[in-house]
Amino acid sequence: MAESGGCGVIDRKQRDIACVPAEPARSFVYAEGWQSWSIAGTQSATAAPHQVTGLDSAAIECQYAAAPPPGVHQGSGLLAVDPGDGGPAEIFAAVNVDQQVPVIQARRCDGYLMVSADGPVTRRTDTRGGGITGALGRWAAEFAGRMGVPPGGLRAVPPVWCPEYEYHDQVTEQDILANLAAMDELRVPVGVLQIGDGYQAAPGDWLSPSGRFTDLPGLVARIRGTGRRAGIWIAPLLAARSSELLRRQPGWLVRDPATGEPLPAGTVRGQECAVLDVTHPGTAQYLSAVLSTMRDWGIDYFKIDYLYAGAYEGQRHEDVTGVAAYQRALRLIRAAIGPQALLAGSGAPLLPSVGLVDAMRVGPGIAAGHTSANGGPAQPAPQAAARNTVARAWQQGRFWVNDPDCLMARPGMQRRADWAALVERFGGLRASGDGLRGLDSWGLQTTRRLLVPSPTGPVV
Fold first, then answer.
1. Is the pTM of this model over 0.70?
2. Fewer CB atoms < 10 Å away: N or C end of the chain?
């Protein structure tokens, strides 16, 4: 519901909390996106914010699937203003994110920015300089402390190789073994080989191999036998509607309170998925068993994906908010894989994830493979990935290790030199997404040079 106000259209749930003087031509607004793939960044206060029009796209890119009204800057739990007159930056941020994340909006009104929110928000006036980026970095350090991130406590992530952008979900066991051999023959310094999407029979049936894999524990042992760590991709909060899991346990899903139907979670690699209810004891036990089994195989790097669906509001076994259910899921995952394993998130609600993962994707995909419906701003593209990597650089070393997405250095990759330079400047986690034998001389040399352990401190 919306109503007409004196300065445009505002959401009825929003309450005005501040009126910030803003020079029309010189003021800027940073609006944090809801999850990894959502658009984020600083833009002129007079610029038209991106508008999400498709319902499916909004469900992925916008918190509570609620797109902002036209002309309104909208942040999920975080919005910052540079007034443009030399004055201090103003940061408006969530008080806490354990139950819900407030939606914060800013709209122009006669030389001011009217800031509103639908939940508790703090206002921080930062006089220490450095513009919005400096102010966000200082705020982030304090927020991370409140979320349990110990100062200097981030762990370095070894360089990773993952198959998703070379082989997509058609990866085979032989593809993995071929690249494992190439790492030694070509002297590519990979520390973690990640088994990618395609090893499983279906999302949800994670311990049942697809026809392209025969012996997952044996494959893990072969990876570890080369002195590397074994990693795996998994979308733990989803299950394909065609999966054996849902055939056996249809009651383990989050449902629409109005219709009682399972909430749709979109299509993952061509398979329609639903959201698992981690508050159901059976679901929690199953997910813990899957992850602890993988850990027993020797996997100690887990890339967990499509996490936004776990924060959907809906009917669950227990009456909790989507954010509370999501944080419970991350804690369950951590308990199952143990404290020494590395945990990397993607497609994740950002602020509720702080303190719960070691690394986080901070933008949409660099190449085709992960798409949002209707071609919204989360659609994979080098331009979108670069935008978010730069915009969220202040999170590196404070919230987690930033994951800008894979280095793509093979011939034919659009603007590969520009992307490599950006990864070198703003990463973060270093990962190769190429079939290694397909690299030319430039690609191989660049990959060797950039695949180093991640920094653990800030880069801006």
1. yes
2. N
